[in-house]
Amino acid sequence: MPDLFNDPPVPGLSIREEFVTPDEERELIDRICAVELTPFQFRDYEGKRLTHSFGWRYDFQDQSFEQAEPLPAWLHPLRERAAAFAALDPEELGHALLIRYDPGAGIGWHKDRPVFEHVVGVSLGAATVMNFRRREGTRFQRLKLPLAARSAYHLTGEVRHEWEHGIVAHEALRFSITFRSLSQAGRARLHA
Q1: For 63, left (φ over 0), alpha (ψ -120 to 50), or beta?
Q2: Range of the structural domain that residue 157 is part of
Q3: What is the CATH number of the domain that holds 52?
Q4: What value does the mean pLDDT take over residues 124-146?
Q5: 8 CB contacts (<8 Å, ≥6 apart)?
Q6: Which runs of E-coded beta strand occur in the chain?
Q7: Does a structural domain hold residue 163?
Q8: Is pTM, for the whole model, over 0.85?
Q9: pLDDT digit string (tens) for 26-41?
Q10: 32 in helix, strand or coil?
Q11: In this structure, is residue 69 part of a structural domain?
Q12: Residue 4 lies in a domain
């Protein structure tokens, strides 16, 4: 297995184990459970995961992008830690997405919307695997990244723009908090 701490297999991919403590993980899960989460909607498809966005909201039904309610105070310390991990100013991570993955839920192949740039995810609850793929001619180059409970990952640069990723469906309850910065295209879209 590649050593992602010293030699990432794809430029722009990094991971940190034990990003939060077990006590912090329990508190974050309790906080997520206290938020009104709704099923993820992608056009006519309803995902098996429940979500809530803070800061900015991208609507997959009509492709609208608009300001959402501000990040709550309980997310600020985690955002500061995520920003330090990504070498960003905390204010740059203006979007937070809470997700509850019930048993059998995952995420298919995708790239994050172009309105976003840096992606920092914190994995809580059950461990899972994040898969990556990039087309090379008629084949795909692939990579599997185990996501342990309490770990964090950062996607930027090549891995963010040239690779698709997805989360394997699993049979245990899992949560995540994903912070994103706005891209230049996202900032332009807001001011259009």
Answers
A1: left
A2: 13-190
A3: 2.60.120.590
A4: 93
A5: 2, 14
A6: 13-16, 38-42, 45-54, 56-58, 65-67, 95-101, 107-110, 116-125, 128-136, 139-147, 152-155, 164-167, 174-182
A7: yes
A8: yes
A9: 999 999 999 999 886 5
A10: helix
A11: yes
A12: no
Residue 3 has a pLDDT of 44
Q: How many residues does the chain have?
A: 192
Q: How many domains does the chain have?
A: 1
Which amino acid, one-letter code, is at 66? E
Q: Which of 190, 160, 153, 167 is nearest to 49 (CA)?
A: 167
Cβ-contact 61, 136 below 8 angstroms? no
> Rounded CA gap, 180 and 117, in Å?
7
155-192 b/e (C-beta count within 10 Å ≥ 16 → b):
bbeebbeebebebeebeeebbbbbbbbbbeebeeeeee
Residue located via tokens 């905390």: 90
5 in a structural domain: no
- Model confidence pLDDT, tens digit, residues 143-168: 999 999 999 999 999 999 999 999 98
Token pair 């993955």: residue: 101
pLDDT tens digits, 79-100? 999 999 999 999 999 999 999 9
Using CA atoms, how far apart are residues 181 and 120, in angstroms rounded to an integer? 9
Which residue carries 């930027």 as its tokens?
156
